[in-house]
Amino acid sequence: MKTPLSALFLIACVLGSSCADEAALRHRDVEMLAARHEAELQHYEDLRAQFAQRNPCPKQIEFPGQGTVIVHECALRGLPGHEEFWIKYTYLNSTGRGIESAHIRIQVRDVTGAERTDSSDARLPLGLRLGPDSSYTTFTQIGLEGLVKIGELEWSIEVQARADGA
Question: Cα–Cα distance between 132 and 97 in angstroms, integer?
Answer without folding.
Answer: 5
